Amino acid sequence: MPPLIGVTTSEVRRGELATLRRHGEPPQHEMALGLTYMRAIELAGGVPVVLPPLANGLETLLDRLDGICLSGGPDLDPAAYGARAHEQLGPTEPLLDRFELDLARAADAAGLPLLGICRGAQALNVARGGTLHQHVEDHRQTALATQPVHAVRIAPRSHVSRVLKTRATQVNSFHHQAVDELGQGLVASAWAPDGTIEAIEDRRHPFLLGVQWHAETLVEAPAQLALFRSLVEAASGRAVLGTLAA
């Protein structure tokens, strides 16, 4: 059986147009998640499962999942890592942050494979006790997400270099926050030309990797699809073990 990969939804929108079509009911908050994440996981051989940010049932969810993908989304509330808000801080959703950080910590403790994308990489760092730069200049491109705009230097013998099979790559960029102080057990393994950390990993964990770029929109490139394939392969091992135990 293909492994089940949970994908977080950390972006909230007011659904005025959608709710107006439903017999004029009042606008309600709705979750938003690009289908590109699900398509990337499907292309990699996994089955994506969208995770609602509900506090109850976290352990039950993790018992049924084989891996986790932490998706992109809004800025993390700096209160999560004990910092004051920067004047350039964007909208935040502290309740959603709490769910995602709790999920990341629980999945980490359970040894589930974890892949963080953009905000997801930042959440992995904060979940491990790290901090963020709240505003980084010139890291939001205007070109389409399918267009890489800058180079990334990758550490030799790192997990990300083995996955991508290269020590340099071209990536897209849609963030203004980035990893600052690394969380416990994490190392930086890729950097932008200006020194911004572009990938983090825990080399002692079965699979824990975060990338600052939106790899899910670049999967036509084999190296970028390999990030999701590596997640699915790691999750497949857990799925087989779970089947044998059952």
Give me the secondary-structure topology:
Elements: E1 4-8, E2 11-14, H1 16-20, E3 29-32, H2 35-43, E4 47-51, H3 58-64, E5 67-70, H4 94-109, E6 114-117, H5 119-127, E7 132-133, E8 150-154, H6 159-164, E9 168-171, E10 178-179, E11 187-191, E12 197-201, E13 208-211, H7 222-245
Parallel strand pairs: 1-4, 1-5, 5-6, 6-13
Antiparallel strand pairs: 2-3, 7-10, 8-9, 8-11, 11-12, 12-13
Helix pairs in contact: 4-5
Task: Describe the 3D structure.
- The strands form three sheets. A nine-stranded mixed β-sheet has the order 4-1-5-6-13-12-11-8-9, with helices on both faces. Strands 2-3 form a two-stranded antiparallel sheet. Strands 7-10 form a two-stranded antiparallel sheet.
- The two termini are 14 Å apart.
- It has a single domain (4-245), classed as Class I glutamine amidotransferase (GATase) domain (Rossmann fold, 3-Layer(aba) Sandwich).
- The protein has 246 residues and is α/β, with parallel strands linked by helices.
- Mean pLDDT is 91; it is low at 241-246.
- It is globular.
- The protein has helices at 16-20, 35-43, 58-64, 94-109, 119-127, 159-164, 222-245; strands spanning 4-8, 11-14, 29-32, 47-51, 67-70, 114-117, 132-133, 150-154, 168-171, 178-179, 187-191, 197-201, 208-211.
